Structures are given as structure tokens and as C-alpha cells.
User: Fold this.
Amino acid sequence: MSKVQVHIYDLSKGLAAQLSPLFLGKQINGIWHTGIVVRGTEYFFGGMGIEYCPPGGTILGPPDKIEDIGVTEVPEDLFYEYLVDLGPQFTPEKYNLLDHNCNNFSNEVAQFLTGNPIPSYITNLPAEVLATESIEAQVIP
Assistant:
């Protein structure tokens, strides 16, 4: 069995937490990028599609948070086969900030490996932001 973790990075480096009440009228603690770590490698959906690196080795530096997702008994060769099959779904051309991004990739991989999703505060963030009033609606009657 191998431990599975999600590495969580705040792309805003704290600015979302500081400025979201002003711009959204709601507290948002980060703009999240995630990667799944299993067997000493971090997998994520990046600018080249499905990418991998040593844990914490992305251009974002060390993760802001690490959360345990569970353990996996999925054999390594089956996992690699799964990633190859998943590749056409996660190409740079198919990236969408709101509904087909790194967090959707991490969530799918976490569920494949462990049966558990990544934390919902990450996957629910786009819907939360879209449900808020815009700054224009708050300022201009």
C-alpha cells in the first residue's frame, strides 16, 4: 500500500484571502492549484498536459498545505496505464479555469487511487466565486 496526498498551492500567495472580501463580498482563502503525490512523485495538470515532478518540485515551490487522501493498492503499472488513458482528456487545449483544471485532474486521480475526493473547499471554489455578486454589482446600484 502507498500513501496518497494532495499538495495544495495558493496561486495568489495570500492575496485572495486579503482581497476577496472587497472584490467578492466573501472570504476566499486561496486560488488553489493541486497535485497528487503517490510513490514519491507529484502528478498534476499543467501547461503541457499531465505532468510530474518530485513532490514540491513544481515552479510554485513547496506546497502551502499537504493533506492525506488515503492509501492505494493500485499497482504502479495500472496507474501509469490510467494516466496514459487520461492524457487525451487533460491537454492544454482542453484546460478551462472553472471546470476542467488541475483540481479536476487531482480529484479524478485521487478517486481512482483511493476512492476519496480531494477537499471540497478546492473543488467547490469556482462555483462559490460565480455565486458571489461582482464588485460592479456591489458598487454601482
Strands lie at 2-10, 32-38, 41-46, 49-53, 65-72. The first helix runs from residue 15 to 24. The chain has six helices and five strands.
